[in-house]
Give the backbone structure.
Amino acid sequence: MTFAALKICHPKRSTAKSKDLRCFLPLLVLLLTAASVRGQKAPARFNGQAAYNLTQQYLNAAPKRFVGSPGHARAEAFIKDQFKPEIAKGHFETDSFSASTPAGLMDMRNYIVRYPGKKDGIIVLASHYETNYPLRDINFVGANDGACTTAFLIEMGNYLRTHPPQGYSVWLVFDDGEEAIQSWSDSDSLYGTRHLAAKWSQDGTLKKIKAFLLADMIGDKDLNIDRDENSTPWLLDLLKQAAKNTGNSSYVFKNETAVQDDHLPFKQRGVPVLDIIDIDYGPHTFSLPDGYHHTAFDTIDKISAHSLQIAGDLFLEMIRLIDQRG
């Protein structure tokens, strides 16, 4: 609304009643319009502060969550406790499997939460929830690497519970065993998503997936989401558009990278994938060549509600754009 274009007469300068009325009309329109705007509800948004608070709660409940540990079991209990309404509706699935690892067979579990949409097809939002197994003997809690994205998906579930998908169904995947058990390799990593991609390939689910969107390390206070060359080009283009649409262009694509991450098992089976990740985490020094990544310094004070808000806005806009694309 441009106030400069609105000419309002002063009634005391007019001698005729009709002129008085004409002078009051623009003011009346202005007042009614303002009242109408105040009465309108703002579009619902993802709650970045709530996601941050959930991150703190998750870290308190299960700071060390490496596979096979009591903390891992507490992490699983925390996740399940957030989705009681979906469990009651039969929209929550526990996907249990045994993984062959350098440490022997290990029991792992993925969790899938479904929010039915109005048209055929699925958009998957995913994150791993465990911590790095080789780092189990240091004070590694993975606030940015696993905790904040787990909380992010939980808060996304809170949003979708009250704002059901109007297009494709949206499924949340909390995947296990992303981290290596001994040393990263094709066979010692991505256990949960390798298992799930194979399972969904066999039962036909894979063909229904329109996009697999991975959230990883998105809580960094100094957020800048990388352009991941292992992601599907049209989804990278859509992320750039989503950033523009939400006013977040300055937070994306400063750096290019090619990340080996949980999206790869799905990419290898032909699913369009996007890794939304900020791998450049913290200052790179002689003692911290990779910044805070995979160190005891990956703690809650290094992440922010603001970054999680940006990520939430981007993910919701991505869902809208994928729905629109058809």
